[in-house]
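Hi everyone, sorry if this is the wrong subforum. Our group has a chain we'd like a structural model of before ordering constructs, and none of us has done structure prediction before. Sequence below.
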Amino acid sequence: MTEPTLIQTKTSLPIDQIDVSDRLRPVSEAGVATIIASLKEIGQLTSPITVRQKRRKGEVKWQVLDGAHRLAAATELGWTEIPVRIFECTDDQARIMEIDGNLSGAELNPLDTVVFLATRKAVYERMHPETKAGAAGAAARWADATDTMSVAFVKATAEKLVMSERHVRRLAAAGASLGPDEIAKLRSAPRQITLKDLQDISRIDNTVQRYDVVDALAEGRVKNVAAALKGAQPANDNPDKDPVEDQFAALAKAWSRASMVARRKFVTEHFSDLSPLVVDEAETRDELDIASLRTALTEVAAE
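Answer:
Right subforum, don't worry. Here is the predicted structure as tokens:
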């Protein structure tokens, strides 16, 4: 497949000739405001936006691939031209460039992240059909027979974006389960949708219940998916006793009463059991630096 070609004959374009449609996420007002403040302070754009040159029926058009926020900021400031890097490429290459530019350079919320990664998976496997799970037999699949992601996609994306392969699989799977209508509704939610919410939504098999949960989040009636599912369950005056809850209560009580020395000894002696659980929880929450966490756990075990 031919690589995208950089066109070096143009280094700037009139802003009103750049198309900003057909993008995976809308422009953030807060993001634009931040860039406007920077442009006012330094007076120039230090990083050109990336655009695609398309030829349709003899007419040349340009579409923004990376830099929609910079373009919006320049427009609001009244600029008529903007620095650009222009590429000629295919539709799939354009989408990959848009996705990678956002994933590597922007602070994305969990919803945008899973949507970008799910789209990257679909585009990557269109561009490299030989890597699609199942296409090359058992060697192209994960040990889990239900996993439909190709090894090549996960490895390439993890390396490109500096993520763990497990994290890539989780994010892409959560994004792939969302329909366009659900994405639009969740974007309008008053509370930011967490990665755990998105993973919980992906596990809801009942279509009606799934739509009810998404609506509840979008309308701000619940804080999270767990609360929405709890509210949807019929009342039970005599619930069965949950042995897991009893075990959890006992562990929590013992931990709260233990001294720090005893807690450290417990962590050290049970390190091999605890560390994968803690890392797994951190990846689910999408809040911690996994590499730093692994280092910290190793240091605890070594003491």
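For your construct planning: The radius of gyration is 24 Å. The beta strands are 5-7, 12-14, 18-19, 49-56, 59-66, 81-88.
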